Amino acid sequence: MRPNNINNTQTYNTSGLYKLTCKTCKQAYIGQTSRNLKRYQEHMCYIKNNDPQSVFAQHILNNQHEYGTTDEIMKIFKPINYTSLLIPYEQLFIQSHYQYRQQITEQNPGEHNPLTQLGIDTTRMSRDNLISTSILNI
Question: In this structure, is residue 10 part of a structural domain?
Answer without folding.
Answer: yes
